[in-house]
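User: I want to check something. If I give you two sequences, will you return the structure for each one separately, not as a complex?

Assistant: Yes, each is folded on its own. Here is the first sequence with its structure:
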Amino acid sequence: MIIRPSVIIRQVTAASTVLTAVFTGVYLLLDGVIWFSLAITSGTIMYHFAMRLVVGLSMNKFIMKPIDYDNIWLRPKSFERNLYKKIRVKNWKNKAPTYRPDDFSIKARSLEEIIQKMCIAEIGHEIMIVASYFTFLFAIFTNDWKTFIWIFIITSSFAAGFDLLFVIVQRYNRPRLVVLLNRNASLQFNNH
């Protein structure tokens, strides 16, 4: 049985929320460093999963107009093709989990719709990369923020790196679909 990423994200968000509340409560009652560490750890996990859930759902709700996939931000850059060859995106891109696989299914959607979903996914993951670093604010709740800030830097960097993989997959695949879309449009134009 395959568990979908959407289920995992929701379950981890719920579990880490409960654990954060429990560990925070125990810490406030017993004042032990272990309870504090567990509260901060579960709170950080909750933040990273909940933030991704909120950003992902918000992107699909609030972007109503078609996105110009050839705008300066989304347009492929000259260095990308060589970079993607060097890091062998073609070999691992299909192993990346997809929150909503139907959004990228050629059987369920048109090429134009898939390209739009890819733009939304890329922008969403770019927002998540930036938002990953907001956990630095959790260091404020520690007695010795200079000691604990490194934990947040490391976890934020890993989380941002994870989202970067999804940005790379979108930027690798989208130009190929745009070429296919343009070919189909050209064929239809020539057939009329």
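And separately, the second sequence with its own structure:
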Amino acid sequence: MAESSGFPPFSRKSPLELVKNRPHYTPMALREIARIGHPVLRKVAEEVADPTTPEIAALVADMIETMRASEGVGLAAPQILVSRRILVFEVAAARASAESVDEGEAEGTLPVGLTTLINPVLEPLGEEMELGWEGCLSLPGMAGMVPRYVHLRYRGVTPEGETIMRDVRGFHARVVQHEADHLDGILYPMRMQDLSTFGYVDEMEKSLPEI
């Protein structure tokens, strides 16, 4: 998902640190980002059998490097031509405030830093949905109004083998839904109800300054 942010890792040890401690460590690298039309973006991604392997840690490190270099807030493995059920994201503290609920914590108390989810599972909490602007690194320069569930529970596994489970709202929930869609071969225009709000940002902002 397009938009930049930079916060410290959520877990005690980041995937970047983890991969450096593995045998046969190779430096992280920027990866090519698949654009709309590439067949990998239409596939349902495969589950990861073992999230703790050196290969997965190296892949996650590359995803994080690529996401940050591209000034994105999220990235899914299929976007870098790897059809596996992995996503990474960062939610700025200002946007996470009063929107996220971490298991066992009060609502709105925790900013959400770098998060990796392997084999994520999403569960909407309620039927309420809202429209919001979204962009995507696989559709550079474009944006559209997309309906998403307001309140969501998700769980997944980290490259360290730890389980993450959170109830989240607002922008945090939107980012996770956007990235998880990539794992099922869905791009955000496929979720849109009104394609008149879809287009190139530099053209639309002439008449829609709120973009």
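Because they were folded independently, the notes below concern the second chain alone. The longest helix spans residues 54-69. The longest strand covers residues 112-124.
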